[in-house]
Design brief:
single chain, mainly beta, Immunoglobulin-like, 2 domains, five-stranded mixed β-sheet, about 40% strand
């Protein structure tokens, strides 16, 4: 996964796995859900507190340090240890798809911020992904079954990543609850690259498809992040906070032959309206 310049600064679970395995929801919707708190400190510290029961949850993250932080939540399959999951990824040169038989990347997001997702019972690991550096400290916690699990509020729109493309509306509305989900068999991400206008977005999309990320970067005006790298079946939602205009929806994960998913069709022009 190459970077799209400094604009697509994702919290890369890939990088964290290699060296250490490794938007705010509306007030009424967030307050109705149990709260899980993730405190990210610098490039190493991370503490998890709050509700650790199954069902829908609002994950609120804080960050103490310079710039912006990032974190990831990995759910381990039953009977799998953190060390086993780490070894699986390391032995496949950091490929996060190697994690699938051992666990799943449920959420990877910026801090501070708030996202909503659904927690299944099981053992979890929270990782500090700030700066895509070594996850020196991790926080392990267990989600216990709830007798009455909370349900997520219905989103205004759902964007789904598949091999190799996106399903969902091509017009999203700023300030509405948007769900991003991985409906494929591989790890995917869902980012929006801003453009000056529709022709500019079309040109960026063409450059990404041709593998010319550096040239595409020169035309970009910013980005919005719907979902950082996440495993098959992962889902999260948050209120969209992005300037209305045209964007390129893209996934920058790599295939086994080194090509980015953008080169295989995971790039399309969408619009954000008021």
């Amino acid at each position: 996964m190459k970077r799209f310049g400094s604009l697509v600064v994702v919290s890369s679970v890939v990088a964290a796995c290699v060296v250490g395995l490794a938007g705010v929801a509306g007030a009424s919707a967030a307050s109705a859900l149990p709260a899980l708190n993730v405190a990210v400190a610098g490039k190493t510290g991370i503490v998890v507190s709050g509700s650790e029961v199954s069902g829908a949850v609002s994950i609120s993250s804080t960050f103490s340090g310079k710039g912006q932080g990032g974190y990831g939540l990995v759910r381990l399959n039953q009977g799998v240890s953190f060390a086993e999951a780490l070894h699986a990824v390391q032995s496949h040169h950091g490929d996060p798809n190697a994690l699938t038989p051992f666990g799943s990347i449920l959420v990877s997001a910026d801090a501070p911020g708030t996202v909503q997702t659904v927690l299944a019972p099981g053992n979890y690991v929270a990782l500090n992904l700030t700066g895509n550096g070594p996850a020196a400290n991790v926080a392990q916690f267990t989600v216990t079954p709830s007798s009455s699990p909370a349900a997520l509020p219905a989103p205004a729109a759902t964007e789904t990543s598949i091999e190799f493309g996106f399903k969902g509306p091509k017009v999203l509305h700023d300030g509405t609850l948007v769900r991003a989900e991985n409906g494929g068999f591989l790890v995917h991400m869902d980012v929006l690259i801003g453009a000056r206008n529709k022709p500019g977005a079309q040109k960026i999309a063409a450059l990404l498809k041709a593998g010319k990320d550096n040239k595409g970067q020169k035309l970009a005006t910013g980005f919005a992040d719907l979902m950082d790298p996440a495993s098959p079946g992962a889902m999260q939602q948050e209120v969209l906070n992005a300037k209305p205009g045209y964007y390129v929806q893209a996934c920058f994960m790599d295939t086994q032959d080194g090509r980015e998913h953008t080169q295989l069709g995971m790039e399309r022009v969408i619009r954000i309206a008021k």
